[in-house]
TrEMBL record:
<feature type="modified residue" description="N6-(pyridoxal phosphate)lysine">
    <location>
        <position position="286"/>
    </location>
</feature>
<keyword id="KW-0663">Pyridoxal phosphate</keyword>
<dbReference type="GO" id="GO:0019752">
    <property type="term" value="P:carboxylic acid metabolic process"/>
</dbReference>
<dbReference type="GO" id="GO:0008483">
    <property type="term" value="F:transaminase activity"/>
</dbReference>
<dbReference type="GO" id="GO:0030170">
    <property type="term" value="F:pyridoxal phosphate binding"/>
</dbReference>
<protein>
    <submittedName>
        <fullName>Aminotransferase class V-fold PLP-dependent enzyme</fullName>
    </submittedName>
</protein>
<dbReference type="GO" id="GO:0016831">
    <property type="term" value="F:carboxy-lyase activity"/>
</dbReference>
<keyword id="KW-0032">Aminotransferase</keyword>
<dbReference type="InterPro" id="IPR015421">
    <property type="entry name" value="PyrdxlP-dep_Trfase_major"/>
</dbReference>
<dbReference type="GO" id="GO:0005737">
    <property type="term" value="C:cytoplasm"/>
</dbReference>
<keyword id="KW-0808">Transferase</keyword>
<dbReference type="Pfam" id="PF00282">
    <property type="entry name" value="Pyridoxal_deC"/>
</dbReference>
<dbReference type="InterPro" id="IPR021115">
    <property type="entry name" value="Pyridoxal-P_BS"/>
</dbReference>
<keyword id="KW-0210">Decarboxylase</keyword>
<dbReference type="InterPro" id="IPR015424">
    <property type="entry name" value="PyrdxlP-dep_Trfase"/>
</dbReference>
<keyword id="KW-0456">Lyase</keyword>
<dbReference type="InterPro" id="IPR002129">
    <property type="entry name" value="PyrdxlP-dep_de-COase"/>
</dbReference>
Length: 459
């Protein structure tokens, strides 16, 4: 193992060095990948040196999500403390299903969940888990809602049409989950949003009344804290006002993207009313820059987690109280340790440190919006209180611009679409960035456009 640890050090140092020199790697075209890198598997293994060289080639030609030129997705940057925790989790290689195997790691997970429940005022019966990502957090919430609506479904299966309500700007995992959960895509009501990307509570109410009048069975309402494109926050209080009239409705808040505003005194008002929801999730691998993936789901009533996810298995649960056998509340059996990396970060910088990270992202987004608004060649499509900054530049086709920047190895940034408009989406989620890094983004993009003016398509 010693040799591998040394090689790990060496390759990591090389990567860090290269990241500094070159924030974006020129992509290898997908259909040329197997000709470029020796990825195919053979009956004979590679010797130490060629393996080392191959690993180096693979590492150095992989897209760099941790540099100051990556604005492409809802994660980015490398948090050193989070990375340390992740590396230790790999070394320990525990599974989180039982206390017997996880030991203190189980305690670490429980401490985080309890603290999150406390910070959100979820009450003394609340509990949670670390699902494998935000999509799966939303899935677990939907399953709890389904089983709370009808406690026999887990025995008998779904036998009636059950309706889901979510905004048209919500994440596509809601659709996937309706497929997996036996609910069906056609039972989703996509509720209209306003110009800011927030669900219209009156449209929700109208749809609910119509469906109930028609004898249908609404069971799940999903509100989003940070929509995937515009970063908009649904008004949880207003939505809850509507849902509370219907006692069987479960209210989930999908905070995968921006639920971590809970850590900021300045921005937690964006999820005001969250304590009235039945469940809530956020991804620490998004705003908190913890390595992928780290997602937390909490729910008001612990018994709902148990009802939907506990199953007896004598070969597994042999010791300890079920409160410490976390396999009784999880989707999978063997489960990786996603808690240690978040705990290492949280422990090292405290809750106020998490707050600074969140605040920094809003500050960076403001810098970007200010820049855009002060430069007449730009058009802005997003709003305050969002870390997604959406814009177009010189009427250049945003897909063409983003794809060219990527292919030429200049910047990683993506485009999005909302209400018929397509635009570049700059995600200000890397809290290691400073304002000058944001300004540098615009400088690189503008110089590139000047260089390529004739080749880029304008709309
Ligand atoms: C990212 C995101 C998800 C999905 O999270 P994964 O961890 O990628 O599965 C769900 N909802 C919203 C709003 C998101 O932004």
């Amino acid at each position: 193992m010693q040799a591998e640890l040394e090689l790990f050090q060496k390759l990591s140092q090389k990567l860090l060095h290269h990241e500094k020199q070159e924030g974006v790697v020129k992509p290898i075209e997908a259909d040329r990948l197997l000709d470029t890198l020796n990825l195919e598997l053979d009956s004979q293994g590679l010797d130490r040196e060629p393996l080392e060289n191959l690993l180096e080639d693979v590492v150095l030609s992989t897209p760099r999500t941790s540099t100051k030129l990556f604005f492409n997705q809802l994660f980015g940057g490398r948090n050193p403390k989070g990375t340390l925790g992740e590396l230790l989790a790999v070394m320990l290689n525990t599974s989180m299903y039982t206390y017997k195997v996880g030991g203190p790691q189980v305690g670490i997970e429980k401490v985080i969940i309890n603290k999150v429940c406390e910070l959100l005022n979820f009450g003394k019966n609340a509990d949670g888990t670390f699902p494998p990502g935000g999509s799966m957090s939303n899935f677990m919430a939907m399953l709890m809602a389904r089983d709370a609506y009808n406690r026999d479904i887990k025995f008998e299966g779904v036998s009636e049409k059950m309706l889901i309500y979510t905004s048209e700007a919500s994440h596509y995992s809601i659709t996937k989950n309706a497929m997996f959960g036996g609910i069906g895509i056609e039972q989703i009501r996509q509720i209209e949003t306003d110009a800011y990307g927030k669900m219209l509570p009156e449209a929700l109410e109208e749809q609910l009344e119509k469906d109930i009048k028609a004898g249908l069975n609404p069971f799940f309402v999903n509100a989003t804290a940070g929509t995937t494109v515009l970063g908009a926050f649904d008004d949880i209080n207003a939505i809850q006002e509507v849902t509370k009239k219907y006692k069987d409705l479960w209210l989930h808040v999908d905070g995968a993207y921006c639920g971590a505003v809970m850590f900021s005194d300045t921005y937690k008002h964006l999820i005001e009313g969250v304590e009235k929801a039945d469940s809530f999730c956020f991804n620490a691998h998004k705003m908190l820059n913890v390595p992928l993936s780290c997602s937390i789901l909490i729910t008001k009533e612990k018994h709902n987690l148990k009802h939907s996810f506990a199953c007896e298995a004598d070969y597994l649960y042999q010791t300890d109280d079920d409160d410490y056998n976390l396999g009784k509340t999880s989707l999978q059996c063997g489960r990786r340790n996603d808690a240690l990396k978040f705990w290492t970060l949280w422990k090292s910088i405290g809750t106020t440190g998490l707050e600074r990270m969140v605040d920094q992202q809003f500050k960076l987004a403001e810098t970007a919006r200010d820049y855009i608004q002060n430069h007449p060649d730009y058009e802005l499509y997003s709003y305050e209180d969002s870390i997604s900054v959406c814009f177009n530049y010189k009427k250049i086709d945003p897909k063409d611009l983003c794809n060219s920047l990527y292919e030429d190895g200049k910047l990683m940034v993506g485009y999005g679409e909302f209400q018929g408009q397509t635009f570049v989406r700059l995600v200000a989620i890397n809290s290691n960035n400073q304002e000058e890094d944001i300004l540098n983004f615009f400088k690189i993009m503008e110089a590139y456009v000047e260089d390529k003016a004739l080749e880029l398509i304008t709309t």
